């Protein structure tokens, strides 16, 4: 209930309400931006651009309940625009982890390398869908909205990507 009221206030131009909405999921926004941008500085820039865009376009939001899906779509689009502008390729070894997630740096680095190695076997669309689904815990509808494809395409990309990873992994264990 309070969430919808905050969105309605934000739509009327209340900056404090918009800030409360963003702060409630700031970690999710940061992780999402970081997964696209590859470093914390660019992730923060993308979030800053998202906030400016949200404030300027709050009146266009039709359903208050869709605020987080809508705002994450804007964030992903900002990240893609920034990457396109920079013509930047994010190298796997340049990825950073969120500071709060570091418990055992060596173990986490190994796990990150394993996951990135597996994701290197799928195409960029499959990788994006798998990351959004399993690293950011987004539902199919949100991913479809963020990537401008149908829900069926999202499901297919995830299924085919996971199948390719599974086939690759099985192939390595039998050798």
Rg: 18 Å
H-E string: HHHHHHHHH
Strand content: under 5%
Q: How helix-rich are the residues, as a percent range?
A: over 70%
Counting DSSP E segments of at least 2 residues, the number of strands comes to 0
User: Which class of secondary structure composition applies to the elements?
Assistant: mainly alpha
Largest sheet: none
Shape: globular
Q: Ends: how far apart? A: 56 Å
Could you explain the architecture of this structure?
There is one protein chain. The protein is mostly helical and 175 residues long. 73% of the residues lie in helices and 0% in strands. It is globular, with a radius of gyration of 18 Å. The relative contact order is 0.10.
List the topology elements.
Layout: H1 2-11, H2 15-24, H3 26-37, H4 40-57, H5 67-86, H6 105-119, H7 124-135, H8 140-147, H9 151-173
Helix pairs in contact: 1-2, 3-4, 3-5, 4-5, 5-8, 7-9, 8-9
Short description:
With 175 residues, the chain is an all-alpha fold. It is built from nine helices and no strands. It has helices at residues 2-11, 15-24, 26-37, 40-57, 67-86, 105-119, 124-135, 140-147, 151-173.
């Amino acid at each position: 209930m309070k969430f919808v009221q905050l969105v309605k206030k934000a739509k009327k131009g209340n900056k404090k309400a918009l800030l409360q909405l963003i702060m409630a999921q700031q970690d999710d926004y940061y992780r999402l931006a970081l997964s696209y941008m590859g470093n914390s500085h660019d992730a923060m820039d993308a979030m800053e651009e998202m906030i400016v865009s949200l404030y300027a376009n709050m009146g266009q939001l039709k359903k208050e309940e869709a605020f987080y899906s809508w705002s994450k779509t804007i964030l992903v689009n900002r990240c893609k625009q920034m990457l396109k502008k920079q013509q930047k390729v994010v190298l796997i070894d340049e990825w950073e982890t969120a500071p709060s997630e570091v418990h055992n740096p060596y173990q986490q680095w190994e796990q990150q390398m394993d996951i990135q190695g597996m994701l290197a076997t799928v195409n960029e669309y499959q990788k994006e869908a798998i990351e959004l689904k399993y690293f950011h815990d987004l539902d199919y509808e949100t991913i479809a909205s963020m990537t401008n494809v149908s829900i069926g395409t999202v499901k297919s990309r995830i299924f085919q990507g996971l199948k390719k990873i599974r086939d690759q992994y099985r192939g390595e264990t039998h050798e």
